[in-house]
Design goal:
Elements (H helix, E strand, L loop, with lengths): L28 E6 L4 E7 L4 E13 L5 E12 L2 E8 L1 H16 L2 H4 L6 H4 L5 E2 L3 E2 L3 E13 L4 E10 L2 E12 L6 E2 L5 E7 L17 E4 L24 E3 L4 E7 L16 H18 L1 H5 L1 E6 L5 E7 L11 E2 L4 E4 L11 E6 L13 E2 L18 E4 L1
Parallel strand pairs: 2-10, 6-8, 11-21
Antiparallel strand pairs: 1-3, 2-3, 3-8, 4-5, 4-7, 4-9, 9-10, 12-13, 12-22, 13-20, 14-19, 15-16, 15-18, 16-17, 17-20
Length: 392
């Protein structure tokens, strides 16, 4: 069981309403997206060109004076301007989304993980989450809409329909879909045989969090396919603990945090049920959230590779970081030792590539690796959750 950084935020969100002559008018509605500039796809099955995309956060805001009743939302995937895939959220779906968003705000969850919803850029102070009926200053949140498809898609379009003052209203927002991997070519940050416990596939947790959408949690398996020997209640019991972590590509260090202690209480204890451990670890995570992103990432290094691509190496062993802020590093240069600091259930390396240097204030980028072997893959393809990776 792995829990890396809980994660994220990007800094700005927004899409201007769109209407054409003779069409229903926006009536003060606007659509905001987070991430703002694009969503990225990731292969599900490369041989069959099966791909996937997650539209993380769509916010429909009523900043006009009149009440708007939203009745339908259509989400379309486009190729060269033509609709290829379409999903309709009915009046019942919109009502469920409104109730869920309102409950997340009422419970304090939106504020607690504001980074996941672009913070103040998506939800400015005083904005109330509601729906399907939106008064002035209210918004409907639709999040985590996932799509799987064959072939290319280049945009996602959201069209919102409803009524206001007895008249039909409509607003449309469009966001580009970017396919392909990082511009930077990375080597694997660890040498030897490793297990990717969590990757970018939809059945594991990273894909549903904006900054770590394409991140890897990397551990090592030993006897009996266990990650640890003995009782597993000490960091030294874990096969991965203390392994050398290398720079995955050349660049400049823009963050180097060391000295954050590891907490043995974060490990699952012998005889502890998974349910009891999950509840206990959630309390530890809540406490880290109140401390900020450094507490979640633990000891970590961030490297700027240019082209707005930054690699993050998180949960490092305290006292092991060997590089300093501003230092130029080469690919393969030792950075630190693998540990379990921060929001980590087991010793492992959390590795991600993002479009900004903040561990949580960024949007994830799919990672282009070279020089690795996937022994159980049917051919060359991106790394997926559960893969065994061999790196020189």
């Amino acid at each position: 069981m792995y829990r890396a950084i809980l994660v994220v935020a990007i800094v700005a969100c927004g899409a201007a309403p769109h209407s054409t002559p003779g069409s229903p008018q926006p009536a003060g509605l606007q659509i905001r997206f987070c991430p703002v500039s694009q969503v990225r796809s990731y292969p599900l099955e490369s041989r069959h060109e099966l791909d996937s995309v997650v539209l993380h956060n769509t916010l429909i805001v009523n900043d006009g004076p009149a009440v708007v009743e939203i009745s339908r939302i259509d989400i379309d995937l486009l190729r060269s301007g033509e609709v290829v895939d379409s999903r309709r959220l009915s009046a019942q779906d919109v009502q469920r989304a409104g109730k869920l968003g309102a409950e997340l705000q009422r419970s304090g969850t939106l504020a607690q993980i504001a980074f996941e919803f672009c913070g103040g850029a998506l939800f400015e102070p005083g904005l109330r989450v509601a729906g399907p009926t939106l008064d002035h200053g209210e918004a409907l949140l639709v999040f985590q809409q996932a799509f799987a498809f064959q072939g290319a898609r280049d945009a996602v379009r959201v069209r919102v329909q409803g009524r206001s003052g007895g008249h039909a209203v409509e607003v449309t927002g469009t966001l580009p879909i970017r396919s392909g991997m990082s511009r930077t070519v990375f080597r694997f940050p660890l040498r030897g045989s490793w297990w990717v416990g969590v990757g970018a596939t939809l059945h594991t947790g990273h894909r549903w969090v904006v900054p770590e959408e394409f991140a890897l949690d990397i551990a090592r398996l030993g006897d009996g396919n266990q990650t640890f020997r003995g009782a597993g209640d000490q960091f030294g019991d874990f096969y991965a603990y203390g392994a050398e972590v290398d720079a995955a590509a050349a660049g400049r260090v823009v963050s180097a945090v060391d000295g954050i202690a590891e907490d043995p209480a974060a490990l699952r204890q012998p005889g502890e049920t998974l349910e009891a451990y999950a509840a206990r670890f959630r309390r530890l995570t809540d406490a880290m959230l109140r401390q900020g992103e450094a507490a979640l990432a633990g000891n970590h290094v961030v490297i700027d590779h240019g082209n707005q691509e930054y690699s993050l190496y998180a949960h490092l062993q305290p006292g092991s970081v060997q590089v300093k802020l501003g230092q130029e590093v080469s690919a393969g240069q030792p950075l630190a030792r693998l540990g379990s600091s921060g929001n980590s259930t087991d010793p492992h390396l959390h590795f991600q590539v993002c479009d900004a240097p903040g561990p949580l204030r960024c949007a994830g980028i799919p990672i282009h690796f070279e020089g690795i072997t996937l022994p159980w893959a049917d051919g060359p393809r991106p790394v997926q959750s559960g893969d065994w990776v061999i790196a020189p």
